[in-house]
Design brief:
It is built from seven helices and no strands. The chain is an all-alpha fold. The longest helix is centred in the last third of the chain and has 22 residues. InterPro entries: Cro/C1-type_HTH, Lambda_DNA-bd_dom_sf, SinR/SinI_dimer_dom, SinR/SinI_dimer_dom_sf, TransReg_Diox_bact_type.
Length: 112
């Protein structure tokens, strides 16, 4: 499961649960529930934040050691629909980068 993968990588990087949560800007309790598989379907935004702090790609976080049952079928369907509609991987990456930029802009505006 993805929670155990996050926990393993976090420990390999020498980060405590509190450290990772603080650096990623997420609630420690939520991270803990993910790692303990109480919550098993984290958002893409959550995965992006965790992956950035752990210095790995979201893809490697999701795929390494995962089996088909651990992937949300809606995400698989969404990716298939995007590919079938002609959205290239590069276009999808650009969309993700733009979305991350928008989120960062909102955070910066809230902190002002």
């Amino acid at each position: 499961m993805i929670g155990k993968r996050i926990q393993t990588i976090r420990k390999e990087k020498g980060l405590s649960l509190s450290d990772l949560a603080a650096k990623a800007g997420i609630a420690k309790s939520y991270l803990s529930s993910i790692e303990r598989d109480i919550q098993s379907n984290p958002s893409v935004q959550f995965l992006e934040k965790i992956a950035a702090v752990l210095d790995i790609s979201v893809q490697s976080l999701i795929n390494a050691g995962a089996n088909e049952d651990s992937l949300d079928p809606e995400w698989i369907k969404l990716a298939q629909e995007a590919a079938e509609s002609g959205v290239s991987k590069e276009q999808f990456r650009e969309f993700l980068e733009f979305t991350k930029w928008q989120i960062e802009q909102r955070k910066n505006n809230e902190n002002e």
